[in-house]
Amino acid sequence: MPRLPCSAEKGGSDKPSCGAFTSARRAGRATSSRRPRQLVLAVFAAALLALSGEDAGAAPPGYELNDGHFHLTNYVQEGTDIHDFLEIMGTRVWRVALFGIPLQQQWSHRVSGDVAPTYYLDADSDLYYYSFTDAYIATEYLSLSERERERFDPMITGFNPADMYAADHIRRVLETFPGVFSGIGEFTVHKEFVSAKIAGDVPSLSDPAIDRIFDFAAEVGLVVILHNDIHMPFAEPSEAHVQFHRIKQLFARHPKTVIIWAHTGLGRVIQPVGGHVAMLEEILDDPDLDHVHFDISWNEMAKYAVSSPAAVELTAGMIEGHPDRFLFGTDEVAPQNQHSYLKINELYGPLWNALTAETKAKVRIGNYERLFDEANRKVRAWEAANVRRDPNRRGDTEKEKLR
Ligand SMILES: [Zn+2]
User: Does residue 387 carry a pLDDT above 70?
Assistant: First the structure.
């Protein structure tokens, strides 16, 4: 079905599903009035793409999901070839927020002998930040054809959130791979079993280094996916709100940063304490925090949401009350087939059945498109203004050279 260029072409709109515009989002084309001829060319190219049915930003009919949380590689930086992963996405998943894992599990022979750990629970040895992940993800992405790239929104993760230089790393990655990245994360501040294993300083929600990261993300327009447990494992009820209040303060300090709080703060043993939904609704109902969204990724989160008819009802009620603030994600790591990749979708069956068709479509498809299309517009504009471009660079596509 052909689409006409929509009003978002003129910039500033955050309307979802603007197909013609998003077809050209990777083109990083100018929105500045200083480049009217290029703008006309780009709009024309986008319209042509749309009329030819090559509508890339909005999911074509039949696709069920956009995945807002996906790890191509694991804790030892190994994973699925991105071309194989496209096959796994198949005709069910249209777009994917693509990242590796910023932490490498060290294989210490002193600790685990010949048993090579591949997960953070496999050995007592440290995790350390592995910044090469960003170059790896960019290179995988750039190995795709331009049309295939439209289905991925790569994310920068290879920085240490306890380091005041983290924001400089993010800038350097954007400068090295212009035209590639859409956001940062998933990165972690507090995570059960993980934070305490990281070599060096433990990150903190009140660290100025985090504020620098969030400020820079706002300046560029990068989406931020943050993992932060809503409380400590096995927390007493009296302690359960301490982390929550600290993360709310962080969110409130950064009203211009588009934030996705991963897994609504839950984890493997981070169970929803009494009042979990009430805490989330404190954020959802606060007009000063309308830049905060939640992903419902990870089987470990889904298991709580569908643990009983009452839990499904509670979760569905919260989402129905705020249908624009939740995104589906798998949180799968280096999957080998579609069945394992999408098992969380099956797990969420009772939740899908409890939502209206309109809300379900927003959570599974539309909210992703709105947030990431807007991020891509802003990041490409920031790059156009801030990154000195060399037409022979790998990241400069044919369409970009038109500018
Ligand atoms: Zn994850």
Answer: yes
What's the distance, Cα to Cα, between the start and end of the chain in Å? Answer: 28
Answer whether 100's CB lies under 8 Å from 73's CB: yes
Burial 116-136 (b: 16+ CB within 10 A, else e): ebbebeebebbbebbbebbeb
Q: Residue 271 has what DSSP assignment?
A: P
**What confidence score (pLDDT) does residue 34 get?**
39
Q: How far apart are CA 191 and CA 233, in angstroms?
A: 9
What pLDDT, on the 0 to 100 scale, is given for residue 392?
54
pLDDT above 50: residue 317: yes
Q: So what's the pLDDT on residue 41?
A: 42
| CATH, domain range 61-390 | 3.20.20.140
Tokens of 383: 């790059």
Q: How far is the CA of 74 from the centre of ligand 1 (A)?
A: 10
Residue 229 · residue 270 · CB < 8 Å: yes
C-alpha 194 to ligand 1 mean position (Å): 12
Tell me what the pLDDT averaged over the chain comes to.
84
Q: Are 15 and 8 in contact (CB under 8 A)?
A: yes
- Domain extent listing, the chain: 61-390
CA of 184 from ligand 1 middle (Å) equals 12
The Å distance, Cα 200 to ligand 1 centre, comes to 22
Mean pLDDT in residue range 295-316: 93
**What per-residue confidence (pLDDT) applies to 370?**
98
User: Is 152 within 8 Å of 363 (Cβ atoms)?
Assistant: no
| CA gap 32, 11 in Å, rounded | 10
pLDDT tens figures, 173-218: 999 999 999 999 999 998 877 887 888 889 999 999 999 999 999 9
pTM for this one? 0.82
Tokens encoding 51: 């009329």
Kindly give the distance from the C-alpha atom of residue 48 to the centroid of ligand 1, in angstroms, as a whole number: 37
